[in-house]
Write a structure and sequence with these properties.
Elements: H1 9-44, H2 56-66, H3 69-77, H4 80-86, H5 93-100
Length: 102
Amino acid sequence: MLKEAKISSKLAAKYKVQLDSLAVEFDRGFHDFKNLEPQFDILSSPFTTEVDSAPEDIQLELLDLQANNDLKEKFKSDSLPDFCKSLSGNLFLNLKTLLLSF
């Protein structure tokens, strides 16, 4: 029944403009997520994320974290907020700030 409905070209053009606008907005939203993907990787798996893909200010901290087996076990067993609280503020200041910003 809907396939049989006829709409005017003026109305079709109006809907096309609105649908095109929605498509652009949708793509922009996913573009934002794409830009944040490296930070999401750090948040979800800081022990396996590629250090080179991380922001420069946390790369050394990330290397230190990945080399620490005690913290790796703590990450597996604790919630993210509890894990962040266990990080030394002096050694992991930038990483801790990043993790808590989500």
